[in-house]
Amino acid sequence: MKLAALLLAAFTTAAGAADLALPRGVTRGPAVEGITEYDLANGLRVLFAPDASKPTTTVNTTYLVGSRMEHYGETGMAHLLEHLMFKGTPKYPQVWKEFTRLGLRANGSTWVDRTNYFASFAANDATLGWYLDWSADAMTHSFIARKDLDSEMTVVRNELELGENNPFRVLWQRSMSAAYNWHAYGKSTIGARADVENVNIAHLQAFYRKYYQPDNAVLIVSGRFDEAKTLALIASRFGAIPRPKRTLDPLYTIDAAQDGERSVVVRRVGDTQLVMATYHVPAAGDPDFAAVELLGTILGDPDTGRLHRTLVETHEAASVQPLVFSFHDPGVVIFVARLPADAPIDKARATMVATLEGAGREPVSPAELDRARTKYLKDFDLAASDPEQVGVALSESIAQGDWRLFFLDRDRVRNAKVEDLQRVATRYFIQDNRTLGLFIPTQKPDRPPAPAFVDVAPMVKGYKGDPAVAAGEAFAATPDNIEARTQRFALANGMKVALVPIRTRGAIVDANIVLRFGDEASLAGTQTTSELAAGMLERGAGGMTREQIRDAFDKLKASVSFSSPAASLLNVTVETSRENLPEALKLVAKVLREPTFPAGELDQLRNEAVTAAQSQRKEPRSLARLALQRHGNPYPKDDIRYVPDYDEQIARANAATLEQVKAFHARFYGADHGEIAIVGDLDAAAMPAMLGSLLGDWKSASPYTRVPRPYYDVKPEAIRIETPDKANAYYTAGLQFRMQDTDPDYAALLVANRILGGGPGSQLWQRVREKEGLSYGIGSGVTVSPYEPRASFTTAAIYAPQNLGRLEKAFEEELAHAAAQGFTEAQLRDAKSGLLQERTLSRAQDAELADTLTDRLDVDRTLAFDKKVDADIAAATLAQVNAAFHKYVDPARLTTVRAGDFEKK
């Protein structure tokens, strides 16, 4: 199950939890695999999952309210409340500004059964205290004011329109509406446009007072924190909230068993066709749900599933995907196939239905079950290494009925048998339970079981689960500490290596491998070939098929990706455990060095590339970004720095041959001009010999010289792109300038961008989103090269086409004000604090640190560079920040791109 893969296990020991002194009014609840529950007298449940191995803390508050609780005329209320909660309280009137100052990675999300609010930050008692205090205050004292509703309603509507641009989301919503007659799962979480636009503030406030109460919430704290102090703090701040006198009425609406196939057709502008098959399945708490999850993988896995074999390998579709929804009430499983514009959709639909509903006649094999189970358990174990995810992850299990369902579901997957999957497939993957085709009368209808509610309480009573996973070490991810651990050396062929051994939660380790090859002349005309070569690596190597490679990585609990972000390099990321790292690296080396390039796989990959390009040709966001990248580009079409449009991308993909892909690999691939960084629980002493044997003798047949990307002058221009029948529009603007990341102004410009548009709470955010409610997403960014004096500034926002004038006016006024008047001391203080906290948080993520280390190896740097940038940020004065912004960001030099349905509006 996709959502389950995001969930994590706990980070404490049962003994430690049992020894914790309890504040007055707090009782200890169940404990499973290190997660311990504490209950307050007012009904609030608290879960602790401490892990000292990461210098970060994550706090998540889950409210048991989502779109399932909305009634007629109330659709979208739960989601709208999520937005308004960040508008502040009398005690905390500027929430996003404080988040930015404290360097929090914070957000909220709304789903069918729950709403949650979460934040991660560098472990700090003061920050934790502030966030808990705000969370307690927001629970019952949020403004939920008319003035905020007026602006935020348009932001939510903007988000709604963004979804209406997406063919998949439109078809998904129409399918859900057709699949459910009465249950609220048939309605979109974001709500009906009419309800969002006409929401009654008094009704919204009543909805807030009803559901935002301690007896309807679960608070989760994970990562590094003092348990005793934190529990006392929670008891003091949340315990003071009285238990509400109201009672929540039980929800009892449930759909009857479907009595015949249903169909839905959407006709809109676009290039990619979609086929979607939806089947009703039991609730997430049902014992049969584990079998549903496994069948989702067996039938729909994009690489190894049955639909891949019958649809993708036969070229009837470009890709397939399963979506298993783990709901509190009976839910659905959806299978999606994406088709090129000219593919026969009726043939693909027939093949999809035959494959899915043939599962009852073609028994699941032990090998299929083992593969799906291995993948699930691999994802489970890998996810358990990241304490920042635990609170957010457990929200889903809490919403399903109880947080312990997460572990119980894992146990059910472990114990599932072929017979269980066969029984479930026969009961649910049948014609009369399908939403896809037309209604056809039948004399003997084949009914699925009647949906039923699940009582989770008896299932989890007394549940203990597995022993808690051993915790890692407490490690402060400062540049000095990282440098003290880092071991650098070179392999015989010149490949640079950095190792950072750290004992991690679950003995997890992350690796990043970068191969660099070719030069400006030799790489001419190879941009698409390079991308296809990278995409073909995992599709067959060393006598192994694509399926066998995927299975081998899964059994090693290794998450591996191969990508080519530029024609001159290949990037490989690996996440696995200490014990599996050697074998995982051996398999990665085999994939890199011994690809077999099966002809049928290239046809599939080409089909995927063409379909992906087709899907973007009429999307405002994609077209606007591409137009900005192409504007002023001085390079000829065969240069790898040239930016092809979507028609060119399609033509190039169709023209690529297997011989070209094979020749590219033979000519360019090698490790002599590459880097590898490994961070986490590793045997550093064994690495030099192992890496040397795997990659140390591998050299590229072509000389390597980095392709330069010097600054070029771009004439400012206003570009307008019409995208008919798109409810949402996209605006972006950018300019280039001369700067290298060793420039004295570098740190000051980073701070300036943070103030202007570098995240929630920024100047653009406050004006465009908070004040005027014009955009759901808005921001700016600065990219500066470490190689040569070339940098860029960009800004972007989504919006409704009719608001283009107001949006541009807001952009222009804020940029002009920043250029003319500069920023303030308060903005400077908050920006520096938030930026430094964010950089600290990034270094605490092992995968991000590995990526940073390979970048530093390439330019012969250590993290002393990062330490200096941190120091420069901390020392930056207001005069320096204002001067840097004025020097490099000239509004008159901006190229602007607007893409949307402006003619219709």
Structure, explained:
By secondary structure, the protein is an alpha+beta fold. The protein folds into four domains: 7-141 and 185-237, Cytochrome Bc1 Complex, Chain A, domain 1; 262-443, Cytochrome Bc1 Complex, Chain A, domain 1, CATH 3.30.830; 479-695, Metalloenzyme, LuxS/M16 peptidase-like (Cytochrome Bc1 Complex, Chain A, domain 1, 2-Layer Sandwich), CATH 3.30.830.10; 718-900, Cytochrome Bc1 Complex, Chain A, domain 1 (2-Layer Sandwich), CATH 3.30.830. The protein is built from 33 helices and 25 strands. A seven-stranded mixed β-sheet has the order 1-2-3-7-4-6-5, with helices on both faces. It has a six-stranded mixed β-sheet with strand order 13-14-20-15-19-18, with helices on both faces. A five-stranded mixed β-sheet has the order 8-12-9-11-10, sandwiched between helices. A hairpin with a 5-residue loop joins strand 13 (487-490) and strand 14 (496-501). The longest helix has 20 residues, at 146-165. The two termini are 41 Å apart. The model is unreliable at 1-15 and 437-442 (pLDDT under 50).
Question: What are the main properties of this structure?
Answer:
Cytochrome Bc1 Complex, Chain A, domain 1; 4 domains; alpha+beta; 33 helices; 18% strand; 6-stranded mixed sheet; 905 residues; 7-stranded mixed sheet
